Amino acid sequence: MQTEHTIHRRADAAHRPYTDAQGYTFRLLRIPEDIPTLHRWFQPERASFWLMRDKTEAEIAQIYQDLMDSGHATAYLVWQGGRPVFLAECYDPAHDRIRAFYDVQPGDLGMHIFVGPPEVRVAGYTRTVFFALMRFMFEHLGAARIVVEPDANNERIHAINRAAGFVYDRNVAFTEKIASLAFCTRRDFEQATAAIA
Q1: Taking a C-beta distance cutoff of 8 angstroms, is the pair 18, 108 a contact?
Q2: What kind and span of H or E run contains 115?
Q3: Predicted confidence band at 6 (pLDDT cuts at 50, 70, 90)?
Q4: What range does the record give for the signal peptide (predicted)?
Q5: CATH fold label, 4-143
Q6: Can you give the pLDDT at residue 57?
Q7: Which residues, in sequence order, are CB contacts of 194 under 8 Å at separation 6+?
Q8: What is residue 155's predicted lDDT score, i.e. its pLDDT?
Q9: How far apart are CA 140 and CA 38, in angstroms?
Q10: In the chain, what are the domain boundaries?
Q11: Longest Cα separation, the chain
C-alpha cells in the first residue's frame, strides 16, 4: 500500500520533537509521565466521545503503550506556552480496522485529536489546534490524505472537519459506535483554510 520511502520518512519524522510556526511542540507521548494529564482530561462529560471516562491511569497507560508499540501508530502530547494543550494519535489506516471500509491509498494517514481544557476560553480555539495538527501531518509526516472516523453523533467535530476541508463519504459501523468516514487531501485543506482566512 505504501512505499518504503514513505514509511521510513514517517517513522523518522514521527519520533523527532517538532515545533511549528505557531509555537506548538509535537513530542511523543511519555508513559507513565504524561498519563495523569490524560486521565484528568478524560474525566469530564465533554470527553464522552473519547470512550475513556471509566478508565484508570493504569488502563490508559496500557492502552497507549500498546498503541506506541504497535509499529503503525503514534501518540503525541502537544505543548504550547509551557503547557500541554492537546493529544494527537496518528496511524496507518492499512493496519487499522478502518481498512475494511475503504480502499487505502499510498500516503493515507488516520488521526484522532483530543483537545485539553484551555486556560482561557477563546472562540475558535479547537479549530486552531485542529488545523495545527493537520499542518503537522501534511508538512512534517508527509501525509497525502488524512482519514478520520468520528462518532456520527459528534456534531461539533463534524463542523470542524468540514471547516478543514474534509469530504464526508458515508457512515460505517464499528463495535462501539457508528462512525462517519471522511477524507481530506492537502489541496482540500489549503483551499478550505484559504477561504477562512
Answers
A1: no
A2: strand 108-115
A3: very low
A4: none
A5: Aminopeptidase (3.40.630)
A6: 99
A7: none
A8: 95
A9: 24
A10: 4-143
A11: 44
